[in-house]
């Protein structure tokens, strides 16, 4: 199987390198292009054998699967660029939430899918949200998920829930890191303790908490109860968090969904969908 990457920025390069490092792909199976070519050349230097393509059409022409790893409003131009080189047996995969499966199917003759990956895939972790277009057959799906499985847990989701699920799986690492960063900053300022050591302690805590939720049979509420000694320290701090963060998660969801809606309307306009003039 030959796999193309159009856009090798943060997520494109992460996916590409995670798939190579996990053994899921050999470098010579990979074709990649990027607006700024130096980024692909650097990847080739790290992974000899990787094919640097000088145009997106060249990446598309040479690949069975093509990951589109660019920002939502850059999709339409790239689809226009590669559309005429694509064949019906190829598969194009979007990695961004606002571009809809119907946008891709309306613009391309090939099979289409949409995934929302996570930065956690760099360490063979995290859920990869998968959505498939109408031209994808069961065997295509199995082959595709076989490719992703060494770096992630692929799960099928309904496209209508893409935003809320990717808030957790894909934005989540940033949100939790924000929380930890603020916490560690306060700890350093208050105590003068070494930031690196505090960060390591926090990371191990996060890893263990994740394992308790995924393997240990705990719900988040049960975990809180298990840690909270009645009348103890955790209870006091949880009460502070509860009163300080009232409504924040509803506002967070309103914010991510608001930005998604804005980008979706722009994509609809570009693709001639419901939002088009
Ligand atoms: N970061 C994350 O954790 C996640 C990101 N995503 C999605 O991934 C997508 C990319 O995000 P991210 O990687 O973070 O963004 P980046 O800005 O890091 O990467 C985008 C890349 O696309 C390249 N590019 C832009 N236009 C073209 C073009 N016409 N042809 C070829 N390459 C082009 C850019 O090139 P140049 O070097 O010139 O800027 C850049 O390298 C987004 O849609 C985002 O929603 C999804 C899940 C998680
Ligand atoms: O910040 C973003 O737009 C992307 C979407 C999911 C994670 N990062």
Can you describe this structure?
The protein is α/β, with parallel strands linked by helices. The protein has 2 domains: about 5-155, Rossmann fold (3-Layer(aba) Sandwich); about 165-250, ProC C-terminal domain-like (ProC C-terminal domain-like fold). Helix content is about 55%, strand content about 10%. The protein has 11 helices and 8 strands. The chain has helices at about 10-20, 40-45, 55-60, 75-80, 100-105, 140-150, 160-190, 195-215, 220-225, 235-245, 250-270; strands spanning about 5, 30-35, 50, 65-70, 90-95, 110-115, 125-130, 155. Strands 3-2-1-4-5-6-7-8 form an 8-stranded mixed beta sheet, sandwiched between helices. The protein starts with a strand and ends in a 6-residue tail after the last helix. About 30% of the residues are buried. (2S)-3,4-dihydro-2H-pyrrole-2-carboxylic acid binds near residues 166 and 170.
Summarize the structure.
This protein is of the alpha/beta class and 277 residues long. The protein has 11 helices and 8 strands. Strands 3-2-1-4-5-6-7-8 form an 8-stranded mixed β-sheet, with helices on both faces.
